[in-house]
Amino acid sequence: MIPERSGTDFIDAVQKFLDRADHVDGLDQMSAQARRARQIEATYTSAVAFLRDSFPNDEVRKLATQLWRSVESKKTPTAMTDVVKTVHFLALARGLLWQALVLIPENWYEMVRRDPLAQLGAVVWAGSQAVDFANHKIRESQDADALARAGAYEAEYLLTIRRTSPHWEPHAYQSAVIERYPEGTRTEHVRDLVYY
User: Fold this and answer.
1) Who has the most CB within 10 Å: 60, 94, 134, 189?
2) Edge-to-edge strands of the sheet including 88-94?
3) pLDDT at position 50, please?
4) CA dihedral defined by 149, 153, 159, 163, rounded to 10 degrees?
5) Which helix H or strand E contains 79, and what residues bound it?
6) Which residues contact 77 (CB under 8 A, 6 or more apart)?
7) What is the residue extent of each domain of the chain?
8) Considering the entire predicted model, what is its pTM?
């Protein structure tokens, strides 16, 4: 879940994006860009609602409830962009203020159709960081505790998929997350970081 670009180039690209960002309501509603943005917005909303209401894991449902509130209150809005290859959380300073966004690739709708389980995992990973931002738990741009917590929550999600879908096979990235956090949010080296 690392953006395609990193370092200063990535931050510069995101800053340019923030400077020219349009709200979906401000776009020509008949344009392809507005239709795509509405489609992605609806898909993301449905993903968070599913994780909040129907996912068979209490920890993930609690996280998704917090994420729903965070996005709804505009503390961590979503944005469609070509800057990332998967759902990604970004927090950066704009002057004296911190801005946070959940960045969603322009082709995310198609990505969800191809591999919904992987993309729901990405929502959990980025969502954990968004909740941390809303709760003032992120102290710096690449906060180690927030990243560890996000990994633990994604592992919690993946372990639930494994438990409920015995024929599911994780891909390499998912296997690495499970290996790093074999007990999800109860994994020893992150257990004390979980607060919601």
Assistant:
1) 60
2) 78-81, 97-105, 88-94
3) 96
4) 140
5) strand 78-81
6) 71, 101, 102
7) 7-193
8) 0.85
